[in-house]
Design goal:
Elements: H1 3-7, H2 11-33, H3 41-73
Helix pairs in contact: 2-3
C-alpha cells in the first residue's frame, strides 16, 4: 500500500486496516515458525505497511497539536 493511498483514508479506516494488518503479521509469523510460509517477503511487506500507517497517524496527531498553537502565537492587532 502506498503512502498516498493511506493519506486519503479516514482515521477510522486506517485504524481498521492497521488492526487487520497486525493480525496478518501474527498469522504470517505463525506460518513462518511452522515452516508453512510460502512467500517470506509478505511478512516484511505487511510490517512496512503497518509502519506507514502509524507514521501517517502520527503526522496527523502532530498537525492537530500544532494547529491550535499557531493561532495563539499571533499577537492580536
Amino acid at each position: 500500500m502506498k503512502v498516498q493511498e493511506i493519506r486519503e483514508m479516514s482515521r477510522e479506516q486506517i485504524l481498521q486496516e492497521l488492526q487487520a494488518l497486525q493480525r496478518r503479521v501474527f498469522d504470517l509469523r505463525t506460518q513462518a515458525e511452522t515452516e508453512e510460509l510460502k512467500i517470506p517477503s509478505e511478512l516484511g511487506k505487511a510490517r512496512r505497511d503497518i509502519a506507514r500507517m502509524q507514521t501517517v497517524l502520527r503526522e496527523r496527531q502532530w498537525a492537530e497539536a500544532s494547529a491550535p498553537q499557531a493561532g495563539k502565537e499571533k499577537a492580536p492587532e
